[in-house]
Amino acid sequence: MFLMTVVMQVDDWLADDDAAVRENTRVVHEMGESFDAMAVQMESMQAAQEKANEAEQAADAALVDILRNISEALEAQAGSVKDNKK
Fold first, then answer.
1. Whole-model pTM?
2. How far lies 69's CA from each of 5, 43, 63, in Å?
3. DSSP letters spanning 20-44
4. Whole-angstrom Cα distance, residue 36 to residue 25?
5. Could you list the pLDDT tens digit for every one of the 86 residues in the chain?
C-alpha cells in the first residue's frame, strides 16, 4: 500500500512537471512571438521615420530655393531702384 502511494505521488509530480513544462514552453513561445511582433513594428516605424526625414529634407531644400529666389528678387529690385535714382 505504501509503495502504491509513493508511485502515485511520483506519477502526480511527473504529470504536474509535464504540465508546468508545457505551460512554460507555451508562455516562452508567446513571448517570442510578442518580441517578433515588436521587432516588426519597430522596423516599420523606423522605415516611416526615414521616409519622413527624406520628405523633411526635400521640404527644407525647397524652402532654401524659395529663400534664394526671394533674396535674388530683392537684390534685383534694390538694383533697379538704385538705377532709377541715378
1. 0.51
2. 95, 39, 10
3. HHHHHHHHHHHHHHHHHHHHHHHHH
4. 16
5. 777 776 677 666 666 667 777 788 888 889 999 989 999 999 999 999 999 999 999 999 999 999 999 999 999 888 776 666 65
